[in-house]
Amino acid sequence: MLQLCHPMPKLEQLLPPLDKVITLLPYYLIFGAIMDIDALIKYFGFNEHPFISNPDPRFLYFSSQVKEALAKVEFMARDRIGPIYMYGPIGSGKTSLVRRLQETLSRDERYIVKLLISPNLKSSNAFLRLILETFDVKTERSYTASLANFETFLLQQHEEKKIPILLIDEAQYMTHDTLKLIHYLLNFETNTTKLLQIVMVGQEELGTKIMHYRELASRMFPIAMNSMSPDDLKEMITFRLKVTGHHGSLFVESESEEAYKMLYAYTKGLPRDAIKVCFELLIELATQGQKQATAKQVEEIAKGQNLVI
Q1: Which of 68, 92, 205, 245 could serve as a FRET partner for 38 with CA atoms 20 to 30 Å apart?
Q2: Distance from CA of residue 139 to its chain's centroid?
Q3: Looking at residue 100, which CATH number applies to its domain?
Q4: What's the pTM value of the predicted model, to 2 decimals?
């Protein structure tokens, strides 16, 4: 007769702890043990997820500084007043703003709007080739010949009453050599008009780089993007919920004010961090079978994301 080498485990050893079962029970009942974006959307009654960290311009909340920045950029682009550089901390909404700008200007057939993202190129020649390819202008072996082709293209657009606009996102990665090319392109102008409108967007390092390049800084207009105010952050969360067809509050009514204070304290008013916290909040609420969050849940998730007050 065979002997078992190890004793059979007891039943309670095979089952998860009771408190774990109770915690996960709403999750299994609601989602059938499958948690994904579609399940969350269905559970909360959204048309789409309100807290995805992407630069979808539909979700751009028009805070006072966003309105001011857009108005300034659009005004200067329409009247070809001069190039702009916009800078701010990570997660302050710069990319969403530049995408909204691209979308808005592209509706007008007068504008030829091109967007370059993270042009981390070391040489001005490589950067020039990228710009020409973006505008469908023929490049040449010679750097000088490529510049001449681009100037011819810009003059032709001017005659046709077109306004070429170059948007550069993540511009903090540009080298001094590629910034020199930007400086040179600013010389393409008539006696009264800039032939190319340039808008550079990047992190705070971009502002530092341009300020160190005095010749370029003197010819560009700066726009500083800052973190949101507490009221703007609250309105942004509400706005994103409304975009998805949800008109309720994310937080328990009796704790709403405290929850927003907690969210602002940990995120420092940076939209991206607030969106990430809210994204995880929805998962937490769904697994608990809840629809609204408490201030404590905000704090726990913020800490879990290594955010600090």
Answers
A1: 92
A2: 32
A3: 3.40.50.300
A4: 0.82
How confident is the prediction along the chain (309 residues), in pLDDT tens digits per residue?
Answer: 444 444 554 544 444 444 444 444 444 445 544 568 888 999 999 999 999 988 898 999 999 888 888 898 888 888 888 899 999 999 898 999 999 999 999 999 999 999 998 777 889 999 999 999 999 999 999 999 999 999 999 999 999 999 999 999 999 999 999 999 999 999 999 988 899 999 999 999 999 999 999 999 999 999 999 999 999 999 999 999 999 999 999 999 999 999 999 999 999 999 999 999 999 999 999 999 999 999 999 999 999 999 999
What the block records as the tokens of 307 is: 């955010």
Give me the sign of the Cα torsion angle 229, 231, 232, 236.
positive
115 and 204 together in one domain = yes
Host domain of residue 247: 20-53+229-304
Note whether residue 243 is domain-resident. yes
- Same domain (yes/no): 90, 136: yes
DSSP tag of 269:
T
* Of the candidates 239, 292, 236, the residue with the CA atom closest to the CA atom of residue 91: 236
